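Help needed: design a sequence for this.
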């Protein structure tokens, strides 16, 4: 297995089916075709101004370094409310792909909105770029055995430990907030971690990646137009790829294709038996699950599975936000990928307020 497999995997979140790429030559839109977020490329010129709910005089920011195994160093940003604290705190865990610390997607900075919104109201927030953004093919000591432990789990747990060691932080009130694939993996990250007091899952998928990709292609094709036939052809290809991913004879040390990405079998086999709802149900900590009603990347089918899994959980709170898309931004009508490029997009104040209210009761 070549190290370049990790690069291909981290690019999967921004991989666009060939049929869609052909359309891009004559279109200003860029459809998304993955279950999680698309990170903007390094150096992208993104216009961003703070949302109205931010009070820039209520907090300050400090650079921090998240260190895992003495080998991987991630440049994080800690948003600290004014005062000595100790403050309740959040660690933000982003979606698929090599996301930056702000989780920049089109014109939206999902995590910067959340960090500044929460810090304006007295909650410290730590955000950081993913290891795959900083290290690419060097994100694992063994590319042939690359898994979500390398991509997500170890660094998130290191970020929690960093917060717990700081005197400004109330180490009994550290909450893990995961978005998209970060929400999907939040129960796994929190399992056995005594320093995590609660988890919030924002538009977190429960279904395998390949199924989400298939459903997204079907959704995009449903709009019709000159690209619909090409999308249907792409859908047939992905359905064949999904069968290879799900094949019982998939073995370690091999790889499979999904869209244009080559994925190490180790990554897929690691997730094959993972049921995020079942893992979450075994946690005794408080859990908040938020689902955007206009999200076509993580859908009502995922939310229903969270509801079923957590039906007997004494500390679970689940809420559907009818107007929110996958990036937690309010809008009207069917969500379409070109909307991610519209100016002035910010995470919903309703969601920010609800997270603050939920955390204040912990």
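Sure. Designed sequence:
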């Amino acid at each position: 297995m070549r190290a370049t497999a990790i690069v291909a995997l981290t690019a999967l979140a921004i991989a666009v089916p060939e049929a869609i790429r052909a359309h891009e030559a004559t279109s200003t839109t860029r459809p998304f075709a993955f279950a999680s977020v698309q990170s903007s490329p390094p150096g992208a010129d993104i216009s961003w101004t703070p949302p109205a709910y931010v009070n820039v005089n209520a907090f300050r920011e400090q650079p921090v370094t998240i260190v895992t195994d003495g080998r991987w160093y991630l440049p994080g940003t800690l948003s600290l409310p004014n005062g000595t604290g100790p403050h309740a705190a959040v660690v933000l865990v982003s979606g698929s792909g090599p996301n930056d610390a702000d989780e920049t997607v089109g014109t939206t900075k999902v995590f910067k909105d959340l960090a500044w919104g929460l810090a304006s109201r007295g909650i410290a927030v730590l955000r950081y770029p993913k290891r795959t953004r900083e290290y690419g093919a060097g994100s694992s000591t063994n590319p042939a055995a690359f898994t979500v432990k390398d991509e997500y789990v170890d660094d998130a747990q290191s970020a929690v430990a960093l917060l717990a060691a700081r005197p400004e932080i109330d180490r009994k009130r550290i909450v893990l907030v995961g978005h998209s694939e970060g929400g999907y993996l939040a129960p796994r990250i929190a399992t056995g971690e005594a320093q995590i007091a609660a988890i919030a899952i924002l538009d977190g998928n429960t279904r395998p990646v390949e199924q989400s990709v298939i459903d997204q292609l079907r959704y995009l094709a449903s709009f019709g137009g000159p690209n619909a036939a090409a999308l249907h052809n792409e859908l047939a290809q992905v359905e064949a790829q999904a069968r290879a991913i799900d094949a019982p004879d998939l073995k370690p040390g091999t790889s499979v294709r999904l869209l244009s990405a080559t994925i190490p079998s180790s990554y897929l086999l690691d997730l094959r038996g993972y049921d995020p709802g079942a893992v979450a149900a075994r946690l005794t900590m408080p859990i908040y699950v938020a689902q955007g009603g206009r999200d076509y990347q993580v859908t009502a089918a995922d939310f229903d599975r969270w509801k079923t899994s957590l039906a007997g959980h004494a500390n679970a709170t689940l809420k559907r936000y009818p107007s929110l898309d996958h990036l937690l931004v309010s809008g009207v009508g069917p969500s379409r990928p070109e909307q991610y490029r519209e100016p002035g997009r910010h995470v919903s104040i309703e969601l920010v307020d609800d997270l603050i209210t939920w955390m204040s009761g912990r």
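The longest helix spans residues 228-246.
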